[in-house]
Amino acid sequence: MTEIKPKTLEKFLKGVMNVERKYSNELREQKSARQTELREWLDKFVAQELKSEDPEG
Amino acid sequence: MKIQKVELKNFRQFHGEQTIEFATDGEKNVTLVHAENTFGKTSLLNAVLWCLYGQVTAKFENPDKIVNFEAIKEGADTAEVGVQFEFNGKEYLVRRMFFNSRSTRDQTELYAYEVDGGNHRVIRVPDIFVNSVMPKEMAKYFFFDGEAAEAYSSSTNFKAISQAIRNILGCSMADTAIADLKKLCRETDEEIAVSVGDDSIKAIDEHLLKVGKTIDDLNELHQTRKEELVTFREQEREITDALRNLQAAKEIQARRDDKQAELGRIGENITECQNEIVKWIPSSGIAVVSGRLTKDVEAFVNQEEMKGRIPSPYNEDFVKSLLESGTCVCKRCLEPESKEWKAVASLLKKAGNAEAAAKGVRARARATMLKRIRSTAPEVLMGIQTKLGRLVGMRDQVEQEIAQLGAQMKEMPIKEIADRENALQKIQANIRRICGEIGGIKSKIAELVPQKEEYERQLERAARKNKEAQRLVNRRNLLNQSEQVLGGLLAGYEREAREEVEKEINDILNVVSHSHRVCRFRENFSIELLRDDGTLSPKSSGENQLLSLVFLAALVKFAAARIDKDDFLLKPGTVAPLVLDSPLGQLDRVYQEETARYVPTLAPQVVLLVSSTQGNERVLDALGSHIGAEYALISENHGKRGDKKPTYLKRGGKEIETTLYGCEKTLTRIERLK
Which positions in chain B touch A22 (Cβ < 8 Å)? Predict the structure, then answer.
């Protein structure tokens, strides 16, 4: 597996935790928009930040 | 958060509308509620927990029977609890209603309001609001059933302890993030297989998925087996400790025999010393008490010497022989009655004989000896007395040790040895089996990991030709690595938290415990109590309850210390009322007193629910000036008293009857005392 730079991981995780924090007072059993928002953040991050991690990109 | 009041309406024993106002003063921060068993202590604690979170403690039986049975007879269908509290300078009211006739799914309704004077502003999502005031996962450590507190000190309850530390640390957000990342990773794997449209990539991905799933399953199994192993190891340790105690019984007996022999030897030495004192009295005591006499004897001998009597320079026999021989030593002739003869004969007056000389010498010698004895005798006596004193001290010490050994022997569960040996053998067989299984699981994982890595490399290579595949593989890598980083960070936080909680526990133990013990977390999070010398100290039920309470207190302090922590992974701590149901039940009187003295310092607001055995005079004295509000729960019964004895609560010189009979209804009434 290609190793991703620690700074890139940190930036991604901060975004993930921002979403988690936003929904942190929800009860876990409740259905939530949290995962949709996480997916959006993931796609955006991969598109913008991981080009440089792409060996051929 | 400070609770101002709790309003109950037909909730369990509490018929009709009843209110209890909690002390909110910073100094007088304790609300004391006296209630005998079954009067409603647990119901009161659960009323708050149920209102805020819809959950109850394990001790709250029949949680679906919320509405008071007298109210149901009167046709009521609902029960209600309202909790009014202050939070961040504002007042809020949270109200939960229970509908008896509704189905389980929608049996309760929750409302939250911001209270501004007489106005109640509705809060749109009440459960999220309550969770933001105090996270649900932290609440159970603040609303606590003290009788169940022992659970935390059980050696096999390491999971509850670990979970408690994680909950108070605020790991829930990061835990959810890890679960979310895993879910997204699985979805990405499935997407690669389905949406890329490349058969070779699809085939590699399917292999990868299969191997990945097998590794996940094996890891899960590994975790389960590890937990089982920990449980068995803890059970093994408990039994081994017990057996060691039995072995210790033999050792104690041997030590007791040694001590008895030592006591005998000391006794002999004491007798010897006493004999020495008896001997000292005639030999040396006379010299000490005859100092004057000795001086007089010496003076007399000297005086007699001065007079020339004893001893004399002229021996009587010698002078006589000169007179008889008629010749002096100077060769002069000694004619009887001559001048020379008279001169020599006059010496007879001064001359001494041998007997008198010997007596003089003996008298002088005796006087000198008495003088010498007198100078050393006190020292000799003091030496004997010191030795005697030391021996008496040693005898007392050994007698005390023998008594302690006897007390230890009484606690030895000798009859259990065979049963425990059998149980130990079974547990050890299980440990061997699980260790074997774990070994097998590990070797399978070790085999599969390189396969997985190889598939991942293949997938990355294959994905370079396909833009969509490349995007998904990048996404997959990101999710996988992020999950690992997050897991590593959380483990580090947990280790730090464990150290801090351990330190906090020991600080609190130093204050409340009357025996010096040190608490230590084992690697698996179980709590153990150690003696000064580092050996394991068996815990009595009182110590178990104390240790659990102290653990809880340490969690509450840890939560308070983390209130302003701004960490991107963890939820901040919280400050909340500490509501303790029967926290002192199994403690001895000294522990009760010390704990009661300490409890008011644990949180800005403390609610203690106690029975008469716990709310005794010493406990009340220890709580002293911290009591800001005081209530009694009175049990009113419709039936007749019969042979039942009345129960009383004595407070402020008054005697309050707490069980009443022949009342209109059967219910619990809240009566304010202070």
Answer: none
B423 touching A, CB under 8 A?
A: no
- Cα–Cα distance, B311 to B301 (Å, whole number): 9
| Domain end point (choices B574, B597, B624) | B574
Does residue B258 sit within a domain? no
Residues B565 and B587 in one domain: no
Domain assignment of residue B410, yes or no: no
Collect all residues with Cβ–Cβ distance below 8 Å to B95 and sequence separation of at least 6.
B51, B80, B81, B82, B83, B110, B111, B112, B113
The pLDDT of residue B93: 97
Containing structural domain, residue B190: 151-196+466-574
CA gap B475, B291 in Å, rounded: 109
Are B94 and B65 in a shared domain? yes
pLDDT at A55: 45
pTM over 0.90: no
The number of distinct structural domains making up chain B is 3
- Which of B132, B176, B485 minimises the CB distance to A20? B176
Residues of chain B under the 50 pLDDT cut: 310
Query: Does residue B48 sit in the same domain as residue B158?
Result: no
Which of A14, A16, A46 is facing B474, going by the closest CB pair?
A: A46
Can you tell me which residue has the tokens 């991690």? A53
Partner residues linked to B650 by β-bridges: B655
- Inside any domain, residue B69: yes
Distance to chain B for A51, nearest Cα, Å: 9
What is the per-residue pLDDT for B616?
A: 76
Search chain B and give the residue with CA nearest A12.
Answer: B482
- Domain of B65: which CATH number? 3.40.50.300
B616's tokens: 């005794």
- pLDDT at position A56: 44
Distances (CA, A) of B452 to B216, B448, B464: 12, 6, 19
Rounded to two decimals, the ipTM of the complex is 0.90
pLDDT of residue B281: 79
Residues B554 and B613 in one domain: no
Answer yes or no: is B405 within a domain: no
Rounded to a whole number of angstroms, the distance from the CA of A35 to the nearest CA of chain B is 7
A vs B: CB pairs below 8 A? 89
Are B372 and B494 members of one domain? Answer: no
Whether B45 and B12 map to the same domain: the answer is yes
Tell me the pLDDT tens digit for each residue of B395-416. 989 888 888 887 776 666 666 6
Q: Which residue has the tokens 């997916």?
A: A39
B126 CA: distance to closest CA in chain A (Å): 10
